[in-house]
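Re: that backbone. Tokens:
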């Protein structure tokens, strides 16, 4: 994605609790003379800020750090919900003169645990199988947490739907009772009117 040199850009990730999130990014600056983005942006860094929802519906800062023109950041989510990841360059130029465009390449991996390649290339096959097995167990735990989170969301949605359906049913019953009582009142009023006028 593209941002201005002094602009802040945020993305939202819906992340289950107790999940490792790893992000890799690279910044490229627009070159006016070449009319293209340079391969790197020397001298530029990125402020990365990660906030998560807390119990009292306020945002809690999980990560706030300055990185270089390319880097890797990681954090662990403690609560499930929408996490906000924001990027802003550390450019010291004034907003008027900071007209450069920046291109940010971003790769976010949620719940991924990377294998240690040096351990895998070890000669001992038992150790290699052990490392791969631990990696698979971590992946299974991540899938289980993801399923639990989706189950929680489905349960909340189902409760909301049932409450809405119940409200609609009671509203329909109340409307029916009001219509019946108005009808009975109108019939009685007409009957009393006709009797008073001696038409019946």
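Recovered sequence:
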């Amino acid at each position: 994605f593209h941002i201005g040199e002094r602009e802040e850009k945020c993305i939202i990730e819906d992340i289950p609790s107790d999940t490792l999130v790893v992000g890799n990014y690279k910044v490229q600056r627009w070159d006016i003379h070449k009319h293209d983005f340079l391969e790197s942006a020397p001298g530029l860094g990125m402020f990365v800020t990660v906030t998560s929802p807390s119990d009292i519906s306020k945002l809690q800062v999980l990560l706030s750090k300055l990185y270089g023109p390319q880097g890797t950041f990681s954090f662990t989510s403690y609560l499930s919900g929408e996490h906000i990841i924001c990027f802003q360059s550390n450019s010291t130029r004034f907003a008027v003169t900071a007209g450069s465009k920046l291109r940010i390449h971003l790769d976010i991996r949620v719940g991924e645990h990377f294998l240690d390649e040096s351990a895998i290339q070890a000669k001992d096959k038992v150790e290699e199988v052990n490392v791969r097995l631990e990696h698979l167990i971590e992946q299974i735990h991540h899938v289980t947490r993801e399923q639990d989170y989706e189950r929680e969301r489905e349960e909340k949605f189902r409760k909301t739907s049932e409450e809405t359906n119940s409200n609609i049913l009671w509203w329909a019953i109340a409307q029916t009772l009001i219509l019946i009582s108005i009808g009975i009142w109108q019939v009685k009023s007409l009957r009393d009117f006709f009797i008073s006028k001696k038409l019946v």
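The CA atoms of residues 20 and 111 lie 5 Å apart. Residues 138-171 form one domain.
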